C-alpha cells in the first residue's frame, strides 16, 4: 500500500469513528428526550403553571416551584453577571500575563470544575448556619457562585478575541483606555458575553444539590426570599423519590419543563453567536 493510500485509509477510519461517536451522542440525547416526553407530556396543561404542588392523591401543578426557581435564578444572574463580566474583562485586558491574572484564572478554573454540592455546603456553612434558617437568598448565592466562573471564562474569551488593532485605533483617537473597553471592547463582544450569560443560566437552572442545603423547599407559594422557598429541581427530586404515582408524573413534567427551557436557552445562545459571525 502506498503512503497516500495508507493516509486515505487512516482518514476514512478516523472519520468513521468520529461520525459513530457523534451518532451515539445524538442517540443518547434522543432517548432522554423521548423518555421525558413520553412520561411528562401527558400531564402538561395550563394547570401546571397556575396551581401549586398538591398533596398526594389530589390534582395540582408546579406553580410555586417554577416561581421560586425563576426568582432565585434571576437574583443569581443579576449578582453573577456584573462581577463575571468585570472579572473576565480584567483577565482579558489587564491581567493577560500578570501573576494576579494567572492566580485569578487558576481560581476561576478551579471553581468552574468544583462539584455543585460543594458550593451548596459552603453556602450552608457560611450563610445558612449563622442565620439559623434556610432562605431563597442563600439559594441564589449558591447559584451565583456556580454561574460566576462560566461568565468569567466566556467574557475573557470573547474580549480576548478582539484584535489589538481595534483597541489601537480607538486609543489613537484620544479615548482613555476605560472608554475603549466600554465603548469598543464590550460593544464588539456583547453577543458573546450575552451568550455566556445565557449558558450560565442554563447551567444553574437544573441544579438540585446546592438548593437542598440552602433554600430547601416550601410546600406553599412564597415570594419571601428570606425564608425557605420552593424550586423546581428540588421538587422533582422529592416527587420522583415518593411512592405516589401522581407525584412521580409531576416530577416527569417538571423535568420536561426544565429540559425544554435549557434547550431554548442553548438555541438562543447559538442563534446569537451565529448572527454575530455573519455580521
Give the helix/strand layout.
Blueprint: H1 3-40, H2 46-50, H3 63-93, H4 99-112, H5 116-131, H6 136-160, H7 164-172, H8 177-204, H9 209-212, H10 232-241, H11 245-277
Helix pairs in contact: 1-11, 3-6, 3-8, 3-10, 4-6, 5-6, 6-8, 7-8, 8-11, 10-11
Count every helix, treating DSSP H or I runs of 4 or more residues as helices. Answer: 11
- Strand percent estimate: under 5%
Query: Ranges with pLDDT <50 over ≥5 residues?
Result: none
* Main sheet record: none
**C-alpha geometry:** globular
Number of strands: 0
Average pLDDT rating: 91
From the helix content, strand content and strand pairing, which structural class follows? mainly alpha
Oligomer: single chain
The helix fraction, in percent, is over 70%
Order of helices and strands: HHHHHHHHHHH
Whole-angstrom Rg? 23 Å
Separation, N- and C-terminal Cα atoms: 47 Å
Offer a few descriptive terms.
76% helix; 279 residues; mainly alpha; 11 helices
Question: Can you characterise this structure?
Answer:
The protein has 279 residues and is mainly α. It contains 11 helices and no strands. Helix 6 packs across helix 8. The chain has helices at residues 3-40, 46-50, 63-93, 99-112, 116-131, 136-160, 164-172, 177-204, 209-212, 232-241, 245-277. The mean pLDDT is 91. Helices cover 76% and strands 0% of the residues.
Amino acid at each position: 500500500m502506498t503512503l497516500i493510500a495508507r493516509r486515505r485509509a487512516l482518514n476514512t477510519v478516523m472519520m468513521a469513528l468520529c461520525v459513530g461517536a457523534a451518532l451515539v451522542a445524538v442517540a443518547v440525547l434522543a432517548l432522554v428526550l423521548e423518555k421525558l416526553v413520553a412520561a411528562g407530556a401527558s400531564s402538561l396543561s395550563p394547570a401546571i403553571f397556575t396551581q401549586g404542588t398538591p398533596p398526594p392523591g389530589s390534582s395540582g401543578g408546579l406553580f410555586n416551584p417554577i416561581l421560586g426557581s425563576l426568582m432565585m435564578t434571576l437574583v443569581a444572574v443579576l449578582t453573577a453577571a456584573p462581577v463575571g463580566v468585570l472579572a473576565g474583562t480584567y483577565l482579558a485586558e489587564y491581567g493577560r500575563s500578570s501573576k494576579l491574572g494567572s492566580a485569578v484564572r487558576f481560581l476561576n478554573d478551579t471553581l468552574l470544575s468544583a462539584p455543585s454540592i460543594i458550593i451548596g455546603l459552603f453556602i450552608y456553612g457560611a450563610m445558612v448556619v449563622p442565620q439559623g434558617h434556610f432562605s431563597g437568598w442563600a439559594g441564589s448565592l449558591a447559584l451565583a457562585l456556580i454561574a460566576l466562573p462560566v461568565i468569567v471564562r466566556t467574557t475573557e474569551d470573547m474580549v480576548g478575541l478582539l484584535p489589538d488593532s481595534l483597541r489601537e485605533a480607538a486609543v489613537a483617537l484620544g479615548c482613555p483606555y476605560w472608554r475603549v473597553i466600554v465603548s469598543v471592547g464590550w460593544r464588539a463582544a456583547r453577543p458573546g458575553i450575552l451568550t455566556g450569560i445565557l449558558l450560565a443560566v442554563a447551567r444553574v437552572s437544573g441544579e438540585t444539590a446546592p438548593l437542598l442545603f440552602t433554600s430547601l423547599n416550601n410546600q406553599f407559594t412564597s415570594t419571601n426570599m428570606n425564608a425557605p422557598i420552593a424550586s423546581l429541581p428540588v421538587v422533582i427530586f422529592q416527587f420522583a423519590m415518593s411512592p405516589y404515582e401522581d407525584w412521580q408524573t409531576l416530577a416527569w413534567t417538571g423535568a420536561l419543563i426544565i429540559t425544554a427551557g435549557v434547550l431554548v436557552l442553548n438555541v438562543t445562545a447559538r442563534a446569537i453567536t451565529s448572527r454575530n459571525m455573519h455580521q
